[in-house]
Amino acid sequence: MADPAKILILNGPNLNLLGIREPGIYGRETLADIERRCARKAKALGFDITMRQSNSEGELINWIHEAVSEWSAIIINPAAYTHTSVAIMDALKLVSCPIVEVHISNVYQRETFRHHSYVSPVATGVICGFGPAGYELALEAISGLLRKKEEV
Ligand code: DQA
Q1: 21 Cβ below 6 A of ligand 1
Q2: pLDDT of residue 2
Q3: Which residue CA neighbors atom 8 of ligand 1 most closely?
Q4: Using CA atoms, how far apart are residues 117 and 106, in angstroms rounded to an integer?
Q5: How far apart are the first and last CA of the chain?
Q6: pLDDT of residue 3
Q7: In 12-132, where does DSSP find H-type helix?
Q8: Which phi-psi region, left, alpha or beta, contains residue 102 (left: φ > 0; alpha: ψ -120 to 50)?
Q9: Each residue's pLDDT tens digit, 27-76
Q10: Which of 43, 47, 59, 93 has the most crowded CB, counting CB atoms within 10 A?
């Protein structure tokens, strides 16, 4: 049997404080809770996942560079870097595997500076506004994309 597809899940700044950070917007689940959700979903889909979080742009970029060779797909919630980081956009351009951008909140219902994403133009797809379930939806989307790739 083929090895399970390896999926990298990256989380940007302040997401380490989910659970206590603006719960009216982001809910009460912690990043560890979200990781557990993802692990359950990944098991059902036959994926091997690695979840990482950093408050530092450079560290996120170094992890994205690993995806050039190591990973079958990336799920990324770049958090505030979504709206500011040309460097993360440039790093994602180097990656040929599917990229799913996830936001817990519906950024389009929020301040206008959150309506622009540097990541969306280089992502395969975007999921936003479904709370932590967005990460599971992203895994399902990747499952469909990788299956399609196998059929080609
Ligand atoms: C976020 C939305 C961003 O605008 C914000 O800066 C975040 C979280 C979300 O998941 O809804 O930190 O990416």
Answers
A1: no
A2: 73
A3: 79
A4: 13
A5: 19
A6: 82
A7: 23-26, 31-45, 57-66, 86-93
A8: beta
A9: 999 999 999 999 999 999 999 999 999 999 999 999 999 887 889 999 99
A10: 47
Regarding the beta carbon of 14 and ligand 1, being less than 6 Å apart is answered: yes
Alpha helices in the chain (DSSP H): 23-26, 31-45, 57-66, 86-93, 133-151
Structure-block tokens of residue 106: 């519906």
For residue 31 and ligand 1, the question of a CB distance below 6 A is answered with: no
Distance 152 CA to ligand 1 centre (A): 35
Q: Is 80 touching ligand 1 by the criterion CB < 6 Å? A: yes
Does residue 152 have a pLDDT over 70? no
Q: Residue 87: pLDDT band by 50, 70, 90 thresholds?
A: very high
Count of all residues that appear for the chain in the document:
152
As a whole number, mean pLDDT of residues 80-98 equals 97
Q: Known catalytic residues?
A: 26, 103
- Number of H helices and number of E strands within the chain? 5, 5
Closest residue by Cα to residue 92 from 29, 12, 36, 23: 12
